[in-house]
Design goal:
Keywords: Leucine-rich repeat, Membrane, Repeat, Signal, Transmembrane, Transmembrane helix. This is Negative regulator of reactive oxygen species. The protein is of the alpha/beta class and about 675 residues long. The protein is built from eight helices and 37 strands. The longest helix is centred in the C-terminal third of the chain and has 26 residues, at about 640-665. The chain is flat, with a radius of gyration of 40 Å. The model is unreliable at about 1-20 (pLDDT under 50). The structure holds 2-acetamido-2-deoxy-beta-D-glucopyranose (10 copies). One 2-acetamido-2-deoxy-beta-D-glucopyranose binds near residues 287 and 288.
Length: about 675
Amino acid sequence: MALIVLNIFLCVAFLDTGWEIKPPAYHRLCKLEERTVNCNGKSLSSILEDLPPGTEKLFLDSNHIEMLKNESLVQYQNLQSLSLCDNGLEIIEAGAFLGTRSLSHLSLTNNVLAMNYSVTAAALRTLSALRKLDLSGNLLTEDMVDTMIQHLPSLESLSLAGNAIMRLDDRHFQNLPNLWHLDLQQNYIFEIEAGAFEGLRGLQQLNLAYNYIPCIVGFDLIQLQILNVSNNHLEWFFAAENDAAFELETLDLSYNQLLFFPFLPRLNKLKTLLLTHNKMNFYENLYNRSENSVQLLFLDGNVTNITTHELWEEKRHGNLSSLTFLDISWNQFWYIPDWFFEGMVLLAHINLSHNCLKTLNLWEKEGMKNLIDLDLSYNQLSDLQMNLDQRGSLTCLRSLNLRSNRLHGLPTKMFTHTTKITTIDLSNNPIEICNSHDAGNPNCVNISNMRSLRNLFLAGCELRELVRHAFKGTSLVHLDLSSNPKVLHNGLGPLEDIAKFLQILSLRKTGLFAPSAKIDFSAFQNLVDLDLSENSLDIFPESLSGLKLHTLDLRQNRLRFLPQHAMEKQLGKSLRVIYLSQNLYDCCKLGWRDTLHRLGHVHIADMSEVTCNYSSRFFSAVNLPESVIQNCKWLTADMALVYLVLTLPTFLALLVAFGIIFLTFRERLLQMVKRRYRRSSSY
Ligand SMILES: *[C@@H]1O[C@H](CO)[C@@H](O)[C@H](O)[C@H]1NC(C)=O
Ligand SMILES: *[C@@H]1O[C@H](CO)[C@@H](O)[C@H](O)[C@H]1NC(C)=O
Ligand SMILES: *[C@@H]1O[C@H](CO)[C@@H](O)[C@H](O)[C@H]1NC(C)=O
Ligand SMILES: *[C@@H]1O[C@H](CO)[C@@H](O)[C@H](O)[C@H]1NC(C)=O
Ligand SMILES: *[C@@H]1O[C@H](CO)[C@@H](O)[C@H](O)[C@H]1NC(C)=O
Ligand SMILES: *[C@@H]1O[C@H](CO)[C@@H](O)[C@H](O)[C@H]1NC(C)=O
Ligand SMILES: *[C@@H]1O[C@H](CO)[C@@H](O)[C@H](O)[C@H]1NC(C)=O
Ligand SMILES: *[C@@H]1O[C@H](CO)[C@@H](O)[C@H](O)[C@H]1NC(C)=O
Ligand SMILES: *[C@@H]1O[C@H](CO)[C@@H](O)[C@H](O)[C@H]1NC(C)=O
Ligand SMILES: *[C@@H]1O[C@H](CO)[C@@H](O)[C@H](O)[C@H]1NC(C)=O
């Protein structure tokens, strides 16, 4: 029975392999894989004729094919995708694609197709199945583009990035009903006339980044989902004022000159709004409302049209109830109006960093319920107010960044419901950490009992000395206390509650000094990365040798040497990177360097900057002068000889003295011996 089954199996296997025609797996030049042929970078000047006839994808990037001749692809009838980037390609002859009816993807990036564009255009016209065309980097002007894409109704995706297009009007982009993706970034576009994209009814993604567009007025591409106008010269963005339901989901207007928050479509599906690096501010508080409209003048041929926009219309930013990601960092906001976040019920990420905010009211609004991360770093906040009486406020918050502000404390109940918060950055604020009798004091920050907290940054806060249980009830994994010279005045005691959790600890510039038992790291058994730089350590803390550190930073201390035995323990096994420069090493006690080298896996990241001191002069520890080495040898290695030389005269003197004594008392000694002998012989 088993034999029959085996027979059948063998037959099936035989049929399977024997009759199927597979493309050859080897070619003298190109890499073959399934039906894909890769001939990139082979210095070819024409298309090879001996490739497998069934080839579907052909890559010929970075060759020297300057001309694609008539019928050069005729034997590859199944070709679907062809890539000819970086070839110096000047012309595609009109009959080049005859026979390749199924070609759907064509990439011609970085060539010089502007040279004979009309001939190339005739060739493209024969590609009736073309769906994706990449013409980026070909020095094409808008009129050349016109000619080249005129008869490609099947096109779905077109890239014209990095060409020489300057202005667009309704003559361009006709007859492309299926196009949904258009990339026009990195051109010289300074003007787009109304109706320029009217022919593109299916357009969903439009990229106009890196151009010279000064404003967008009457934006009415209702079906568009992604619009990217970043890195232009936009001062204004006005959507058409109507009640059409825009499909817009992502709008990138970052790196422009916007003075006002963009005037968005009233009805939209915006999820991501990127406005970083502009000049936006709110001005309601500064000027009188009556004077607040702007008149825009449009010149269209000989027709002048003036439209007036009210700038202070409440909620002029449209209904942003779908917005989840808002980046308005690097602007000039002095304040955020109370109504601003209203209706943004799904907002999860807000970036307000690098503005000029002095106060901020985070009133308990629906808006704050889904907030996951809030970045308010690099402002001038001295006052953060919250009305967070209701349950459920900030319940989703995971990350709060308040770095580089002027805060003295935080609202007392701020963290009452933040059960998911993992990261808080309060660096460079004049804050204090609350101690036990500070209950309810808004001028300090209460970290204790925040169970979810993992990462806490308190660098440069001028903190006073920490109390013993400042971090009790937390499980901090990463703590940065650097640049707080008083914070650990009496040793590491305040860290004892979290010592066993910490993995990354920065104690740079915390005034640590002396070898005493105060600097005992033995409880920090999970520590992986420790920064002790810019302190006054003159002796390597012995307790470090039992840790499993990967990275250790000891720069700018007063160390004279590293004890070699420290590296023979646990530390030597786990250590991978160590920073050692700017200490006071003794040139004659560099044995630790060889010990580290011998371990093999320890990288001294700043070895070239490590110096040592020999008779009050500093030398690079890498290129120690031969004379210093010799002098050190004399001093240390031959110490035994020195001792010998020093003790020899004493020894000789003793010997001589002993000799003299022996000689002078010889008579008497002999007599004594004789006397004894006699007495004993009288038996
Ligand atoms: C290439 O083919 C086109 C059309 O098939 C023809 O008009 C043209 O003359 C041919 N060019 C050459 C160089 O043979
Ligand atoms: C291609 O363009 C160059 C210069 O623009 C011209 O000299 C040459 O005749 C053109 N070739 C064809 C086939 O049109
Ligand atoms: C917009 O285009 C720029 C340039 O290509 C790119 O860096 C940026 O990520 C794009 N924005 C979005 C939202 O994709
Ligand atoms: C605003 O208008 C009031 C009168 O309506 C006037 O007294 C005040 O000076 C104006 N302020 C500014 C900044 O123009
Ligand atoms: C504007 O120009 C068009 C031709 O471009 C002309 O027919 C029309 O009379 C002009 N209108 C005015 C007001 O000058
Ligand atoms: C001028 O603007 C108005 C309103 O925005 C519009 O209805 C009208 O068609 C425009 N006229 C011209 C000549 O563009
Ligand atoms: C905003 O739109 C949502 C649905 O898209 C709707 O439920 C909500 O009422 C709108 N808000 C305002 C203030 O119009
Ligand atoms: C906020 O923006 C700044 C600067 O653009 C950036 O460095 C930071 O990572 C952003 N914050 C978040 C949370 O994405
Ligand atoms: C800090 O907060 C915890 C609970 O979040 C509370 O038990 C403790 O009393 C507070 N301490 C101070 C000084 O406010
Ligand atoms: C350099 O070493 C000498 C002893 O060799 C010592 O007296 C001197 O203080 C050291 N100089 C410095 C700057 O540490």
